[in-house]
Specification:
The chain has nine helices and 16 strands. The strands form four sheets. Strands 6-5-8-3-11 form a five-stranded mixed β-sheet, with helices on one face. It has a four-stranded antiparallel β-sheet with strand order 7-4-9-10, with no helix packed on it. The N and C termini lie far apart (71 Å). By secondary structure, it is of the alpha+beta class. Keywords: Membrane, Transmembrane, Transmembrane helix.
């Protein structure tokens, strides 16, 4: 019998060292597709050791230049690994042997990937931690060099050898890792790498009247405040008005039904269930559409907001939770978005100011910090206000009938007072500044990782760091 021709067959792999199935009398061409880069940059606990483990799949350790199931790095050390574009399972991050985080491609929204070998999948940059040396690039800041430079002027550092990308895969040097003994060759098309571009879009401010923008931007200045602590600025007062209006709008149905009514707390001892606390309303329940009974249990969802969960610890906790959720729903959400709009307008005014040294007064981290704190305050303020109202109701409604109108107005007053107190505490403890510093350090870590990718693989990540410019 003469020699039979080999059947041409092309197999794609994502990681060097990935085994290939093959059959006799087959000429295999192995096509190494572009991998997905993953970078960990963690600064949480000095001296800590982290482990990244792959479940149901493999990773490629760039430093060790080998396909492995897990990799290890130290706190403060940038760790670079490759994964396949259709990575299965999870990446489990452990700190000193204990599970710290769990990541999947579904979490990042990267389950669908272009199957073309030349297409470069989006990288994943995971930056965690705080950097207390990070400072905002203010116009009055000293021009002396610091340990951590601002985002705008950060120089690209030399890349250590252990962080450099692995050289192109050579199957002849790693043939012992392959399960196929037949001749294998890489397709010459794998050397062609497409150019990628990062597009930066600028918002056209001409679509918004300049007078409106200027008024909102100036409304947060301390000179507009009416209190000695410079908290109740014009924008702060507008925000409180928006919050009160949202509360009235979201609860208008029961407010309209019960505005002229009263209620009190009543304890009834049942033969089998024991003592129970109820909210008892005056008036004719037949004339109402929402509150259709004369009395309700204190945990009933119809009276949680009205009575602030007064009566039991369980009802108080439930009311506080409902109040916190209410800050992010319906009209409460609209009021919160309005507050974020005010934050953005105030920030934009400072962002546009550039000092003699060319640095901006504020950067994107300041905006993220302010919005993040305001979101936390919204939920916390609603929960605390609910608990305060519940405590007041429990104190008085057990002996006298309380007007519903007084509860409605009292809830708004308490919410404003709680909001003022949280803002005063924020100003005293500089919480917003701390959160801003955290956002800035994370942004720096992500930009440094992007610069590293651009320098180690310029054809794949040309101009990629532009996505992280403040």
């Amino acid at each position: 019998m003469g020699d039979r021709p080999l059947i041409q067959h092309t197999v794609c792999i994502d990681l060097p060292g990935e085994p290939v199935e093959c059959w006799a009398e087959t000429d295999i061409t192995v096509l190494l597709r572009k991998h997905r880069d993953v970078i960990f940059d963690i600064q949480v606990k000095k001296g800590a050791t982290y482990t990244v483990e792959a479940t149901e799949d493999w990773i490629y350790d760039v430093a060790k230049k080998k396909r492995v199931k897990q990799g290890q790095f130290q706190d403060g050390q940038r760790y670079h690994l490759w994964i396949s574009r259709n990575f299965k399972g999870h990446l489990i991050l452990k700190q000193d042997g204990k599970v710290y985080q769990n990541y999947s491609m579904q979490m990042f929204g990267l389950t669908n990937t272009d199957s073309s070998p030349k297409a470069k999948p989006e990288p994943i940059i995971i930056a965690i931690g705080t950097n207390h040396a990070s400072h905002p690039p203010t116009a009055s800041a000293s021009s002396k060099p610091t340990d951590v430079a601002p985002l705008i002027t950060y120089p690209q550092p030399p890349i250590p050898e252990y962080l450099r990308a692995a050289p192109p895969f050579d199957p002849l040097r790693a043939d012992q890792l392959w399960s196929c003994p037949l001749p294998i060759k890489l397709s010459p098309g794998t050397t062609v790498e497409p150019m990628q571009e990062a597009h930066v879009f600028e918002v056209d401010q001409n679509s918004i009247p300049k007078e409106v923008v200027d008024t909102l931007a100036a409304g947060g200045a301390e000179e507009t405040a009416i209190d000695p602590y410079k908290i109740a600025t014009r924008n702060w007062l507008i925000g409180q008005l928006a919050g009160g209006t949202a509360f009235l709008n979201d609860n208008k149905q029961w407010i309209n039904e019960l505005w002229g009514e009263k209620f009190r707390l009543m304890k009834i001892v049942h033969k089998n269930a024991g003592e129970k606390t109820y909210v008892v309303f005056t008036g004719n329940p037949r004339l109402r559409k929402l509150v259709t009974a004369a009395r309700y249990g204190v945990k009933n969802e119809k009276v949680l907001t009205i009575a602030g969960g007064a009566g039991t610890a369980g009802s108080g906790t439930a009311a506080a939770w409902e109040g916190a959720k209410g800050a992010f729903k319906k009209a409460g959400l609209i009021a919160l978005i309005f507050t974020i709009t005010l934050d953005t307008a105030e920030w934009l005014r400072d962002y546009q100011e550039i000092g003699p040294d060319g640095k901006r007064k504020k950067d994107i981290a300041d905006l993220l910090g302010k919005i993040g704190i305001d979101l936390a305050k919204a939920g916390l303020s609603a929960a605390i206000a609910s608990m305060a109202v519940g405590a007041a109701v429990a104190l008085f409604a057990g002996s006298v009938a309380l007007p519903v109108a007084a509860i409605v107005l009292g809830t708004i007053v308490v919410a404003v007072a709680v909001g003022y107190g949280l803002d005063w505490l924020d100003k005293k403890t500089h919480t917003t500044e701390h959160v801003t510093s955290w956002f800035r350090s994370i942004g720096e870590s992500m930009k440094h990782a992007a610069e590293y990718l651009e320098k180690s693989m310029p054809k794949d990540y040309d101009q990629y760091p532009m996505m992280y410019v403040p």
